[in-house]
Queue: 2 jobs
Job 1
Amino acid sequence: MFYKEVNLKKRGEMIAFLKKHFRYHTMNSWNRSTSYANNIKLYNIDMPVDIDQDRFWEMLGIIDWQEKLSDLLEDFGRSHNWLWQAGINGRSGGYVVLYQGGIKPSGYKSYCTHCDQKNYQLVPEGQKGICGRCNAKERVNFKQPHMQVFTLPGKDVDMDGDFHGWELFQLRDRVELVQEFDMLCDSIVEAFIETCRNYRIVEEEILVPKTVKTLEPV
Ligand SMILES: [Zn+2]
């Protein structure tokens, strides 16, 4: 649906593809920056006839679907070393947007093998430290520097639309990136339709732990 073939030997065709591609805000409308995007709002999707409208709307709020969606977005980011990331934007989350970003050291030096809590302090060589969260003496140093993904949400992508000085290989790289992004958006829509088809939504009562204050004689 979103993916389009482009002749990667034709400069003009590649530029036209990039210039005509749908764009959306990377943050909000008053921060003016935009990037390549796709509108995955339901009215924009050819909805299969066997799926009823209510199901479609309801599924959006279901945690299982949201987890599936973030897996798809994460796979895209990981395959681009996080230099390029896909994120959801728009008031109703109706747009997938291409973002720039990267990875950097997080500053965490150690972690608890029991509960996974991270810590900025190093543990002395050959020892184990106490975890600040669960109190287990299971805190050990990271063997590799611990890295953190960051996103540059205010940074536009090709907003000026000026590809004049671009070499052919640069254009090709950019077109391929946007095509991959479009394919990701196609898989998001496909996964969504498949989820609607194969699962029904059941209501479940869950117990939420709650802290209450009581009085106790002193
Ligand atoms: Zn712990």
Job 2
Amino acid sequence: MTDSPPEDPIRPASAGSTSPTDATGWFEPLYAAAARGEATVPWDRHAPHQLLAEWMRRRRLAGDGRSAIVVGCGHGDDAALVASAGYRTTAFDIAESAIRAAGERYPEARIDFVTADLFHLPQAWIEAFDLVVESQTVQALPPSMREEVVAHIASLVAPGGTLIVQAVAAADGETREGPPWTLTRADIDRFAARLDPVDILLIPAPGQPALHRWRAELRRPSASQSDRG
Ligand SMILES: C[S@@+](CC[C@H](N)C(=O)[O-])C[C@H]1O[C@@H](n2cnc3c(N)ncnc32)[C@H](O)[C@@H]1O
């Protein structure tokens, strides 16, 4: 993979840092600058991610009032799609300015947009959501944090619930410096060590044959399945 992914962010001064504060501290200034019209957010599509939209269509997802959470929601486009499918939707991001802008972008959507840190999740969110959407947050954080990031994301999934993970895939032998820090199959398997894999796909990006993305669907066994197992 030689192409830069379209959601490739600017390289922050802290890139490569192993400190959680440094690794996440550049998002708020970027979103705040964007709110002032002084920067653009490179991954802001003003539309849901097409991989997520296609997955939801194919699965004919209907929330019917079940709960969903969108991790690292940015300006809220994926959250709006999830809410439109009938989920009671929470969406969170560490960047307060992103959350403010998301609420302004989708004032009618009845989404609970919350400023929160994946590394310090509210206890009430643990194993609380029927659908968890993770799109491009793992890849935005340094690989040294990956195990912890995966554990926190997986912890949100309720018994019987589904996690969808989308990320740019690492090419064979890739040595590219992030962000984004692309994901290997071994990274996807970190999720599969915690939740049951349902469908793990490597999908070529439209018009960019050298670029592939992971879309992994995983499930936490329901309480009754766990009892039987
Ligand atoms: C590459 S962006 C992707 C945004 C969005 N999911 C999308 O696909 O357009 C990564 C997002 O994760 C958020 N983020 C980074 N670290 C976070 C953390 N510790 N807790 C919550 N959100 C975080 C950033 O502020 C940013 O909005």
